[in-house]
Amino acid sequence: MSRKLKLAVQVESSANGLPGKLQLKCWAQTALQPGIRRAEVTVRFVDAEEGRQLNRDYRGKDYATNVLTFTFDEDMPQIDDMPLVGDLVLCAPVVAREAAEQGLLLAAHYAHLIVHGMLHLQGFDHLDDIEADAMEALETRLLASLGIADPYRSEKSADQTGAIDD
After folding, report:
1. How confident is the model at residue 154 (pLDDT cuts 50, 70, 90)?
2. pLDDT per residue over 22-49, tens digit each?
3. CA-CA distance, 91 to 78, in Å (whole number)?
4. Where are the domains of the chain?
5. In whole angstroms, what separates CA 65 from the centre of its chain?
6. Residue 112 in contact with residue 143, Cβ under 8 Å?
7. What is the pLDDT of residue 72?
8. 3-state SS, residue 52
9. Contact 41, 84 (CB under 8 A)
10. From CA 48, how far away is CA 139, in angstroms rounded?
11. Quick check: helix, strand or coil at residue 101?
């Protein structure tokens, strides 16, 4: 089955190191699951102020977070051949700070967040341990196909050594 992704990119951030449209499309396309034939996704890069406002307004959390996912058809009935439609909003300063703190390449962290957000658009979640484990395993497999290391490796190492996970 051929899958088609229509991707729009909006840059409302002054940050350096933002990935380009072709790279974003590659990462997003990789995350599309079997059965998704068409997708229309907007990726928006924002600075901390807009990231904080969106997180506060839509999630009730008064801080800027790395990625927010907005699904347009979440409450609509399933319609045959309807494309997957949604937005991913990435807060560039938060992504850059996290990458530096975790010793990650900035592009690898962006790739992870695009894959993560794309999976949310398709109904994946991490509200409980079982969902989280399944979603993390899928993210890890998809990122490996892109040549990107397991983003959860430090958490898994901590779990195996008996460290307490907050």
Report:
1. low
2. 999 999 999 999 988 899 999 999 999 9
3. 31
4. 4-160
5. 11
6. yes
7. 82
8. helix
9. yes
10. 26
11. helix
* 108 Rama class: left (phi>0) / alpha (psi -120 to 50) / beta: alpha
Q: Residue 131: beta bridge partners?
A: none
Q: What is the mean pLDDT of residues 136-163?
A: 78
Nearest Cα residue to 120 out of 106, 104, 109, 131: 131
Tell me the fold of 4-160: Collagenase (Catalytic Domain) (3.40.390)
> How, if at all, do strands 38-46 and 67-71 pair?
unpaired
Task: Check residue 37 and give its pLDDT.
Answer: 87
Residue whose structure tokens are 């928006």: 44
The amino acid sitting at 85 is V
Give the Cα separation of 56 and 50 in Å (integer): 10
Report the run of H or E that residue 46 belongs to, with start and end: strand 38-46
Q: Distance between alpha carbon 87 and the CA centroid of its chain, in Å?
A: 10
Contacts of residue 82, Cβ cutoff 8 Å, sequence gap at least 6: 73, 76
Of 158, 4, 163, which is closest to residue 81 (Cα–Cα)? 4
Two tokens, residue 159: 């779990």
User: What does the block give as tokens for 91?
Assistant: 């807060």
Tokens read off for 109: 């962290």
Neighbours of 73 (CB within 10 A): 14
Tokens of 80: 């045959």
Q: Is the pTM of this model over 0.85?
A: yes
